[in-house]
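Slide 14.
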Amino acid sequence: MIINFQKTKELVFHRPNPRNIVYPSSVETIEQVKVAKLLGVQSNFCCEEHVKYILTVCSQRLHLLKLLRAKGLQATNFTMFVQLLLFPG
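Slide 15: predicted structure.
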């Protein structure tokens, strides 16, 4: 298998509260990260980053809906737009 070093990330795991954290040197040009996103889910075994991401997306969508309502979008179109935001598939 050929590794694409531009897309590869290294995630280092350690105990929750170690006295001394020693991060190993990175392999070649692989970037070390504290949080990685895999299949749309933040994975550092802590929900904080994922929850912040979800809240950001919700905030952006609510802001968009408020702008559309303020611009006088008709109720039927507004309902359709809300359904598209909630269920994009």
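Speaker note: The radius of gyration is 20 Å.
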